[in-house]
Amino acid sequence: MKFKKIAAVMAAAVMVMSFAAGCGSSDEGNSAGGANISVISREEGSGTRGAFVELFGVEEEVDGEKVDQTTTDATVTNNTSVMLTTVSGDENAIGYVSLGSLNDDVKAVKIDGAEATADNIKNGSYKVSRPFNIVTKDGVSEEAQDFINFILSKQGQEVVAEEGYIPLDTTTEYAASGVSGKVAVSGSSSVSPVMEKLAEAYQALNPDADIQIQTSDSTTGVTDAINGTSDIGMASRELKDSETSQGAVGTVIATDGIAVIVNNANSVDDLTVDQVKGIFTGKTLTWDEVTK
C-alpha cells in the first residue's frame, strides 16, 4: 500500500513537470512564432526616434497636431548602445538604430524588400533615411568654424564615408590651419560616433585643437547650441521651426539610414513599413501575426 502511494505521487509529479515543460515551450517559443513582441524604443528628444516615428507613420495627426503613437508598453532606452544591447539580449525584441551604428550583435531586417545599406539609400530603394545635422548660432568661434570647415571638406567627408554614412558631394580641400583652443560639441548619440572620428582626424592635423564631445540627444544638442553651452550641436533630424526661430542653424554633414533591428535568433528577415508601424503602435502584439 505504501509502495502504491509513492508510485502515485511520483506519477503525479511527472505529469506536473510535463505540463510545466509544455507551457514553457509554448511561452518561450520561437521569436518568429507565437511569442509576444518586445518593442524597444528610444527616449523622447532622440532624433532617431523623431525620424523613425515620422518615416514609419508612427507619428499621426490628432486634432491638428502630430502625436507620437509609440505603444506605452515599449521599453525605452536612452542611447544607441543600450538599444543594441537590449535587442541582442532578447530573442523577441525589435528596435531601431542609426545605420552606421549597426554591429553583428543584432540583425537588420529588410524593409519592403530592400536591405539597409548606404548603396540602397543612394539608389532610393531603401527609403528610411534622415539627415545628420550640426547646429550653430551666430557668432561661431574661429576654432569651431575651422572644425566645421574640415567636416564639410573632401577630407572630412571621406571620414563620413569610411564610417558607413552617405557623404556630401564636395571637392573642397581642407588645409591645416594650426588653430588651437577648445570646441564644445554636444547632442545626438547617433551622430556622436562619426563626430568622434571627425574630431580624431581633425586633431591629427591640428594637434593643439581640443574637440570635446558630450553625447546626449538631438534636442539637447540643439538647445545647447542656442544657449551657447556648446559651440556645435548634433542633431539626427531636421530642425523644428521653434528651434530655427531662436536662431539655430542646421547644416547637413551626412545622410544616414535608420535600420530596424531584431535579435540574431529571430527568423524574420523582411518587414513592410505597415508591419513595423503596427508593431510600434501596439496593434501587432505577437510574432506569429507578422509571419502569417
UniProtKB/TrEMBL annotation:
Question: Under which name does UniProt file this protein?
Answer: Phosphate ABC transporter substrate-binding protein
Q: What topology does it adopt in the membrane? A: Lipid-anchor
Q: Give the subcellular location.
A: Cell membrane
Signal sequence annotation = 1-20
Top-down, what is the taxonomic lineage of the species of origin? Bacteria, Bacillati, Bacillota, Clostridia, Lachnospirales
Sorted alphabetically, which SUPFAM superfamilies does this protein's record hold? Periplasmic binding protein-like II
Source organism superkingdom: Bacteria
Q: What PANTHER family would the database entry show?
A: PERIPLASMIC PHOSPHATE BINDING COMPONENT OF PHOSPHATE ABC TRANSPORTER, PHOSPHATE-BINDING PROTEIN PSTS
Q: Which PROSITE patterns match?
A: PROKAR_LIPOPROTEIN (PS51257)
